[in-house]
Amino acid sequence: RGQLRALTTQTEAATLTVSEADAGRLRGKLQESERLFGTAAVTISEVEPEGSQDPTRDGRTREEYETVAAGYERALVQLREANDKRAAHGVELDELHRAGQEAPKAIEAAEAAIGQAVGAVEKARGDGWKVEDATAKVAAARDTYIQANTDREGKRLAAAKRGADAARMAADEAKAMVEQLAVRKAKIETDIGQLERRIAVVERGIGTGRTAFERISERYAESSWDDIAGNGSQAEAAIEAAREALVSGRAAATMEQQ
Fold first, then answer.
1. pTM of the model
2. Which residue has the higher pLDDT, 235 or 159?
3. Over the chain, what HEC string results?
4. Which of 28, 125, 142, 201 has the largest count of CB atoms under 10 Å?
């Protein structure tokens, strides 16, 4: 009963800081806990010692003792259910209290993150990058932030905290998207440079191989070199494919083809 009184005090304090809907729900859960404890109390009163009707006194029959034991078992089940409800209600009150403390900070963090994302997107746009996807994500973050503020004003604290967190994460993602554009471009340019150097090495190798093959074909019978004939053509075809990939890579590295 002491725990139930404490829960009643906590519930009434919480209803002053939450929305009407949440307050009604909390009072309903408190009433359910009170009902369950009341039911258990009634069950116990039916089997507790009471004057001459003491159910534990000597002289009872086995059936009478079994009836008393069954009554206490029912009361125990009811008390456990009531206590589980009370504990769950207490957890929810703690979560609402924590949300009330954290929601304002979460909203401030979301506002700051959106501001940083907007700055990063505008800078990338000014540098010539295509930022449509990041812009859309920032807009979604702003909408979520506005709803979080609305929930806070309506004392829907848990929803406000969730919305603010979601807005902050969306803004952070938008900022990361534009910051990665320059990183990806630099990597593509590095890969292009490596491919160019590799093509040059292979081309020199093809030239050397062609000279060697011409000497062999002049000095020896066709049967001794016909199994390597065509290797140079295949290598040249591979080089041509590499050059085409190089052209595509250069195009991808331009800001117009991000």
1. 0.56
2. 159
3. CHHHHHHHHHHHHHCCCCCHHHHHHHHHHHHHHHHHHHHHHHHHHCCCCCHHHCCCCCCCCHHHHHHHHHHHHHHHHHHHHHHHHHHHHHHHHHHHHHHHHHHHHHHHHHHHHHHHHHHHHHHHHHCCCCCHHHHHHHHHHHHHHHHHHHHHHCCCHHHHHHHHHHHHHHHHHHHHHHHHHHHHHHHHHHHHHHHHHHHHHHHHHHHHHHHHHHHHHHHCCHHHCCCCCCHHHHHHHHHHHHHHHHHHHHHHHCHHHC
4. 142
Tell me the pLDDT tens digit for each residue of 170-225: 999 999 999 888 777 777 777 777 777 776 766 666 666 566 555 655 565 555 54
